[in-house]
Amino acid sequence: MTKKQSSPSNSPAPDNWDAQLRKGSLELAILASLWPEPLYGLGILRALRERGRIEVAEGTLYPILNRLRLDGLVVSEWRDAGTGHPRKYFTLTGPGRARTTAMVAAWHAFSMQMNEMLSPVHEKGTDHGSTD
Amino acid sequence: MAAQTDTRAQIERYLLRLRAALGRMSDTEKAEILSDIRNHIEERVAAAPAGEAANVAETIAALGTPETLAASYRRERLMASATASGEPGLLLHATYQWALTGLRGFLAFMVLLTGYSIGIGFVMCALLKPFLPAHVGLWLDPPAFSLGFMSSLDHPGRELLGWWIIPIGWTVGPLSLIWTTRLVQWLIGRRRPQSDLF
């Protein structure tokens, strides 16, 4: 087993930081994945992977979905998906949509503040790139 | 046929262990959870093209052991109940469980303990002051403050509030309990789910 060597100057993000950032956004990402349409468990995992590039351990998703269901933010129901067997779909409730909207607003506010904070770094990086 | 029976047996064994590990939950909630997991395993198996028996083993392994999965369910559920009810016992239990998982949880637990101690301390002082006026109060013995019951009258500290401890205790105590509860509910609401991303 080889140990990954950390190289701060070359790595795209510090060790584990990227994963921590995504982990913090997991609940919002799950709620957002259900915004366009109800999804079943594997569909949520696929949406997280394809739309958010978030890989979630399968044993992590279902306890969170259960909590969201207990909180009244999602409901689950069996539906015939035309696959020969019923699937359990998760749907955002009214409070779930309200909570998602509030979380998205908070996310955008935070993101704008962070972008402002990071703009000197970005400008410096661009300047540095143009002089090379 | 034998492989299919083995597959069924693997799923049933997993679900049986999961059901046992879920502990004290209502039968309805357990049934909901088991049907989520059964559906997930069956969907995974149906979606995979390779040999069925191997897929079930891999799918089950990806979920973690039934005990680990049940612990995640219990933790998430506990946080949901504690936040919704605001019941001090549940909040203590929830933040204690959270404290076992990392620094943020430990800090939330300490906030809860400190806030509740101050709140209960002031209320107890307000209650006991009329009966033990010389022994109950807020004492200053630089640089430390002591709130509560002082058995010895030779204590070097100076009592600061006198009879004012009664109205102050009845104001500060309940406020401290209420605001600590709200703060910890908010902290739990902002908690990152315990997850494994890879």
Please, could you describe this protein's structure?
The complex is a heterodimer of chains A (132) and B (198). Chain A is an alpha+beta fold and 132 residues long. Chain A has a single domain (17-131), classed as Winged helix-like DNA-binding domain superfamily/Winged helix DNA-binding domain (Arc Repressor Mutant, subunit A, Orthogonal Bundle), CATH 1.10.10.10. Chain A contains five helices and three strands; from the N terminus they run ααβααββα. Chain B has 198 residues and is mainly alpha-helical. In chain B, strands 2-1-3 form a three-stranded antiparallel β-sheet, with helices on one face. The longest helix of chain B has 26 residues, at 103-128. Classes of the chains: A alpha+beta (132), B mainly alpha (198). The A-B interface holds A 19, 22-24, 26-27, 40-42, 54-60, 62-67, 69-71, 76, 83, 85, 87-88 and B 29, 32-33, 35-37, 39-40, 42-44, 46-47, 59, 62-64, 68-69, 72-73, 75-77, 79-81, 84, 192-198.
Oligomer class? heterodimer
Number of domains of chain B: 2
Class of chain A in CATH?
Mainly Alpha
Number of helices of chain A: 5
Number of DSSP-assigned strands of chain B: 3
Give me the Rg of chain B, rounded.
Answer: 26 Å
Strand order of the largest sheet of chain A: 1-3-2
Strand order of the largest sheet of chain B: 2-1-3
On the 0-100 scale, what is the average pLDDT of chain A? 80
Poorly predicted parts of chain B: none
Biggest interface reads: A-B, 30 and 35 residues
Give the amount of beta strand of chain A, in percent. Answer: 5-15%
Summing up helix and strand content along with how strands pair, one would put the structural category of chain A as alpha+beta
Shape of chain B: rod-shaped
